[in-house]
Amino acid sequence: MTNPLFYAKILLFGEYGIIEDSQGLTLPYSFYKGTLKFSDLNTDFEKKSNTSLGKYADYLTDITLPEKFELDVNAFKADIAKGLFFDSNIPQGYGVGSSGALVAAIFEKYSVLDYQPESISKDELKELKKVFGLLESYFHGKSSGIDPLICYMNLPILIENRDNVDRVTIPQGEAGKGAIFLIDSGMTGETGPMVQIFFEKMKTEGFRKTLKEEFIRYNNACIDAFLKKEMTPLFRNLKNLSVWAYEHFKPMIPESLYNAWKKGLDSNAYYLKLCGSGGGGYILGFTRDYGKAEKMLAGFEKEVIYRF
Questions:
Q1: Which of 39, 122, 126, 129 has the fewest beta carbons closer than 10 A?
Q2: Contact predicate 39/83, CB 8 Å
Q3: DSSP 172-193
């Protein structure tokens, strides 16, 4: 296949919790995509991307990967010299996996062994997640490897715990009144600083306790209810999750959305949650009546990703 496309991803549930062994649920988002291409590097975008790839190739030279997941870094460098760049419309700093798609594309093209995503076993998925974590840590300082894994597999993935992941079937969407949607906060977020804030918070026993006893419980219950298509428990736990985030993840909530977040909780018309690390980019919304939520969120750019 020439120039395979790598789609963005959306982490529906599990932001920050997956660092502490909660479950997570993530799916590909084909609205945004990227692919490796060659060009004469005539535009600033192409030049910048090519230069970035060169720096990344230097990083790859310095790390050691397991033999079965080795990359042909010399071929990668030779292609960079010929004008390779990553042609992508995935917004950076929006929590939809811009670096994940890039890592997936590089692995697919330069992996020494030939892998077919559909034939990768559950044990190999676990190994591949670790490898992708190492490959993506260049961009974030520390990476779980989940984003590149989703982008590479191009399938919904259930994160069972810190180590194990598996393919999962998402209930078929239908043209109902309910929706899951993205809201554009109008600002980019940086993963590194947000994750740093989270680790600072984790130093306090009270925060660790509430994260484990409340956040992770609500998060896992949401995943269970969503996969079973049980909307009443889903929305009950979503509200708990949204309240918890409003109280404990305030620094990660873009300021432009504070009031809208609270308005959703007060009216029960919709509930908001972080999409990725927060700080900017997209926020996720869940509602049983999208028409009503849309009116209440007038002025914000929104994209529906799932109907029910």
A1: 122
A2: yes
A3: PP-SSS-EEEEEE-SS---HHH
Structural domains in the chain, CATH included, are 6-167 (3.30.230.10), 179-307 (3.30.70.890)
CA–CA dist 63, 75 (Å, integer): 16
**Cβ-count burial of 200 within 10 angstroms (0-12 exposed, 13-18 middle, 19+ buried)?**
exposed
- Residue 133 · residue 165 · CB < 8 Å: no
Output the CA angle 35-173-297, nearest 5 degrees. 85
Q: Are 130 and 171 in contact (CB under 8 A)?
A: no
pLDDT at 175 over 90: no
- pTM greater than the 0.70 cutoff: yes
63-73 burial, b at 16+ Cβ within 10 Å, e below that, comes to eebeeebebeb
Give the CA angle between residues 202, 207, 212 to the nearest 5°: 90
Q: What CA–CA distance (Å, rounded) separates 245 from 214?
A: 11
Structure tokens at 96: 């939809």
pLDDT tens digit string along 196-248? Answer: 899 999 999 999 999 999 999 999 999 999 999 999 999 999 999 999 999 99
